[in-house]
Amino acid sequence: MSFPWIWVTAWTAVALPLAVLLFLGRAPGRLHRRVGPRGLRARGALILAAYAGALVQGRRTWPGSPGPTGTSCGC
């Protein structure tokens, strides 16, 4: 197993459930005391955006993925 797969698996296991719970307004009690429902949803959306960005960035660094010039060698 290579590092990108470990990164995707760990990021999915941690960030995705947290983002969905925050986006739905379900969060630990300490967050409810400090942030309102809109703030929780905003944080959930932010984590979902960061999750998608991390997966796209991680995917671009895999061997065989297109490089900046569109070639598969990454030149």
Keywords:
single chain, 75 residues, mainly alpha, 3 helices, 0% strand
Outline the structure in words:
The protein has 75 residues and is mainly α. The protein is 68% helix and 0% strand. It contains 3 helices and no strands. α1 (3-23) runs antiparallel to α3 (37-60). It is elongated and about 45 Å long. The relative contact order is 0.14. The model has no long low-confidence stretch (mean pLDDT 75).
Helix count from the secondary structure assignment:
3
Uncertain runs: none
Secondary structure tally: strands:
0
The proportion of residues forming helix, as a percent range, comes to 55-70%
- First-residue to last-residue Cα separation: 24 Å
Task: State Rg.
Answer: 16 Å
Describe the largest sheet.
Answer: none
Estimated share of beta-strand residues: under 5%
Mean pLDDT equals 75
Coarse shape: elongated
Order of helices and strands: HHH
Assign the structural class, choosing from mainly alpha, mainly beta, alpha/beta, alpha+beta, or little secondary structure. Answer: mainly alpha
The figure for the number of domains is: 1
Element layout with pairings:
Elements: H1 3-23, H2 29-34, H3 37-60
Question: Briefly, what is this?
Answer:
The protein has helices at 3-23, 29-34, 37-60.
